[in-house]
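Try this one yourself first.
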């Protein structure tokens, strides 16, 4: 095991590409470079409040001592670190935004584990960079807690994601206008150390293409394939790599939909070329099943990034990445074909996932209409998604009345069912029971499939909000309890979190809707 302060870091990305080494943090355009040196700005009093023990063990990282906490707060840089902010661009809410870059994230270096894996260590909220524009590069406690807990929760839900290693408060106050409505307030500052094999985004490639920097675009694509897709070789490896990005992206969205996750801000600069969930901002899990739900106030009223739109947005974003790769091809035909393959890949994966949630032995052609009608019922009735699937698995008896069935699911309902809604609901449940009877696997095997694919607990926004409020008061009991629960989302060991959103949380700031503010 190594400490953060004694470890020798590598910097393959820095050594492989041109960067701005001046260390100037002035906000500006940086043509011709893929990153800019950016030293973290020291904070008043970094204090460790969150640490991912299991992940630290996987990385070979010791529990932080005093110097390590200084690193987590940006107050200490070791000799082998080379802190930098990455330069990238992106489409935001469907519009080209030009140069963006790491405005409040600073990569310290690359940590190589005892088994040879390489991970980028990055501080989010460590001060301004050349890409901060008019912002201060800081992050507040509420957004940092949300990223720390959610990235780890997604990992244990088996959703591809970046990770979080450590969380510190800074001792500084940060001014934020939470909903961009002219009511700024001071909030406690914090920094999260997030970790990933790479934070490369679609926007890294878009930036180089927009600047017609084909040399660096070619180098970045080849470097990405060599480092993260080494199994791809041959003259056609660029298109084969892109096809894998398409497939990984489709799989990522399917996993989001499986657990009811809504990212909230699926801009192309927030899309990973490794198929990971990155940049946890105004996200949410579904409470009531509403395909039009978006947790992001900035996404209203268009709801571009609503739960039910995420698959089509991913398709659109892949088109943007394909467009950035056009200079590397003699004709666009291979890229068009690869992008258009997304729809078939997605739906195959999606229906297979839904079959698992419903406990089917397989998904037959005749099941597609059944699954579609089942989802129409969920949209009409809007039960709590997580609780509903748990109760569905518990519906074992065949000889029960309609009223008993409705009462069985009462805990999942947010409103009294109308007679029409009740009829739609009962029809879908009976259709499911009929389909289960046609399984070629036992009921026990079916239940096992359901239990492995339907989480019992999710990190609901209102629970996160309560944990953040407690931390702001200097209490951490709920925070620590959530850390334990998120490691076991399919168990019954933390049933105090097995409850639907309370009525008081429906309209409360931070419990239902959020913004990109941090």
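Now uncover the answer:
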């Amino acid at each position: 095991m190594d400490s953060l302060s004694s470890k020798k870091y590598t910097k393959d990305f820095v050594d492989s590409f041109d960067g701005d080494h001046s260390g100037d943090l002035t906000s500006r355009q940086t043509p011709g470079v893929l990153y800019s040196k950016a030293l973290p700005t020291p904070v008043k009093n970094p204090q460790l409040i969150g640490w991912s023990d299991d992940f630290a063990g996987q990385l070979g990282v010791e529990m932080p001592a005093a110097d390590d906490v200084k690193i987590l707060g940006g107050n200490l840089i070791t000799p082998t670190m080379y802190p930098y902010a990455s330069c990238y661009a992106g489409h935001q809410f469907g519009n080209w935004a030009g140069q963006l870059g790491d405005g409040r994230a600073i990569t310290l270096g690359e940590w190589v584990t005892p088994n040879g894996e390489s991970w980028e260590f990055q501080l989010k909220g460590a001060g301004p960079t050349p890409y901060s524009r008019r912002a201060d590069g800081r992050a507040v406690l509420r957004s940092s807690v949300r990223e720390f807990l959610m990235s780890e929760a997604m990992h244990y839900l088996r959703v591809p994601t970046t990770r979080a290693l450590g969380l510190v408060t800074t001792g500084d106050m940060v001014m934020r206008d939470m909903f961009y409505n002219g009511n700024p307030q001071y909030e406690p500052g914090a920094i999260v150390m997030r970790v990933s094999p790479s934070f490369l985004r679609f926007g890294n490639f878009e930036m180089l293409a927009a600047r017609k920097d084909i040399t660096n675009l070619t180098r970045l694509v080849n470097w990405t394939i060599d480092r993260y897709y080494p199994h791809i070789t041959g003259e056609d490896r660029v298109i084969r790599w892109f096809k894998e990005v398409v497939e990984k992206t489709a799989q990522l969205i399917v996993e989001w939909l499986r657990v009811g996750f809504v990212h909230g801000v699926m801009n192309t600069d927030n899309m990973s070329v490794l198929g990971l969930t990155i940049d946890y901002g105004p996200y949410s899990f579904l409470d009531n099943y509403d395909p039009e739900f978006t947790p992001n106030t900035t996404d209203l009223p268009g709801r571009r990034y609503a739960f039910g739109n995420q698959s089509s947005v991913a398709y659109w974003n892949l088109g943007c990445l394909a467009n950035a790769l056009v200079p590397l091809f003699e004709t666009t035909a291979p890229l068009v074909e690869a992008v258009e393959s997304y729809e078939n890949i997605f739906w195959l994966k999606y229906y297979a996932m839904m079959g698992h949630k419903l406990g089917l032995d397989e998904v037959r052609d005749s099941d597609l209409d059944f699954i579609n009608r089942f989802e129409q019922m969920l949209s009409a009735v809007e039960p709590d998604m997580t609780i509903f699937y748990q109760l569905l698995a518990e519906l074992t008896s065949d000889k029960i009345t309609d009223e008993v069935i409705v009462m069985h699911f009462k805990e999942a309902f947010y409103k009294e069912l109308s007679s029409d809604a009740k009829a739609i609901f009962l029809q879908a449940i009976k259709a499911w029971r009929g389909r289960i009877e046609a399984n070629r696997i036992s009921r026990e095997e079916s239940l096992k499939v359901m239990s492995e694919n339907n989480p019992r607990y999710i990190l609901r926004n209102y629970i996160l909000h309560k944990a953040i409020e407690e931390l702001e008061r200097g209490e951490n009991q709920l925070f620590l309890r959530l850390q334990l629960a998120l490691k076991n989302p399919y168990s019954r060991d933390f049933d105090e979190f097995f409850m639907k959103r309370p009525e008081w949380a429906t309209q409360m700031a931070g419990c239902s809707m959020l913004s990109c503010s941090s």
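Discussion: The mean pLDDT is 96. The chain is about 40% helix and 15% strand.
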